[in-house]
Amino acid sequence: MPSETRDNSGSKQQRLFYALAEPTRREIVELLATNGQLAATSIYDNFASSHPAISQHLKVLREANIVQMEKRAQQHVYSINTGAMVELGKWANEIADLWNQRFDALDKVLAEEQKKEEKKRARKK
């Protein structure tokens, strides 16, 4: 069972990173982060690309669960899925923690080596 959960989580992360790998999609996310909810037409107006191209980007972002779409009458209104952003932030923090642990271990090794060198120098005097 745990491997299934990991596989689902991995494919979820893979979709998330795939979606954010494209600069236009990142711009859409930034636009929504800055402005909150926006109608699809408002999003289209911010790009020189065709409406179908932006629509495809929005679809990829929806499928990755990065944005949510709500139908209001004839409008499609988009907003950021904050849960996905929190998940992304947690992952980034976990990676940063792993690197910090490695740097801490390296600091210990370097401190021990420095002590050894200081002892050698003290003996030579």
Task: Please describe what this structure looks like.
Helix 1 packs antiparallel against helix 4 (51-63). The chain is mostly helical and 125 residues long. The N and C termini lie far apart (64 Å). The protein has a three-stranded antiparallel β-sheet. The protein folds into two domains: 2-80, Orthogonal Bundle (Arc Repressor Mutant, subunit A); 82-125. The chain is built from five helices and three strands, in the order ααβααββα. Residues 1-7 have low confidence and may be disordered.
Ends: how far apart? 64 Å
In CATH, what is the class of the largest domain? Mainly Alpha
Q: Determine the fraction of residues in helical runs and give it as a percent range.
A: over 70%
- How many domains? The number is 2
Mean pLDDT, nearest integer?
88
* Main beta-sheet annotation: 3 strands, antiparallel
What would the principal axes of the Cα set say about the shape? Answer: rod-shaped
- Specify the CATH homologous superfamily of the largest domain: Winged helix-like DNA-binding domain superfamily/Winged helix DNA-binding domain
